[in-house]
Amino acid sequence: MVPLVRRMSNIHTRRKNPFLSICNGYANESSPSRLASPPPIQVGFTESAGRGVFANRRIGAGELIHTAKPIVSHPSLSSLHSACYFCLKKLQFKNQTEASNVPFCSYECREQSKIFYETEKQADWSAFHEYCRTQGLKYPLLVKRLACMIISGASTPETFDILQPATLSSRMILLMEKEYQLLRSTFEDAGFTDEQIAFLTKQWYIDVLARIRINSFRIELALGSYEDILLSAAASVDAEAAVGNAIYMLPSFYNHDCDPNVHILWIESVNAKLKALRDIEAGEELRICYIDASMDHDARQAILSEGFGFHCKCARSSRRTMLI
Ligand SMILES: [Zn+2]
Ligand SMILES: [Zn+2]
User: Fold this and answer.
1) Pfam families per the record (predicted)?
2) pLDDT the model gives residue 323
């Protein structure tokens, strides 16, 4: 995600969207293709915020703009036995034995997960998971899954290169040393060859983490049916329902606004839906809110600055600034 600060200067000069055809990692398809017609959007360039997503026709309030499957996702460690290891759907088990054996919600998810799970299950992840758990780390889990996909040939080390990286402080980089070493030694101890994990250098790890840091979505499954949620102004999200984290391609191109016109939501799985919160005119930029929009101005600015590295100058934030 790239911070939005100013309107783009001339929407007519933007190029035909080169990004919509990018395949998503898990599904090898761009999710919008599942809809009857192409999504009414294109990726363009803003004057000062890098890429942005724009409406290429009028979009009505409540309209489902497009869906998106993740490139990489991972359940939170607290959800390992209650969420599908592939799609994060809530798991229903008949008994305890089933719960400890079956991390997938369906045959389809089990099949699709082979791109990382066949590799992953060859290694013992207990020390790596334990470190993440005690340190409260969630992003290394996404790197672990990406690394497994790369080893199995389902992804490449360059997968995240198109995403904007965060600026990391030397302290942050120092803290990554241990998790990187643990990731690498987990593969080494499992007998993976130097050739298989040649991509897994410290620099690669840092570069990937820098991108995950500002492009990761925290997955909170919304309550209620899909129809209920599309009808409501904003989905009701259970704060306790954070089941994991995921990286998407297209949703990462949406800029931030504290008064967004698009809402990203998850109904029952990691597959995201982007819905118009109000009528949007052709050419208008589509923006989502990266944070809890109900926070006050100072809290929003503090989190955006710390978490995403920018000072928000959206219309809502600017109005507040002018009042001072
Ligand atoms: Zn599933
Ligand atoms: Zn703002």
Assistant:
1) SET
2) 54
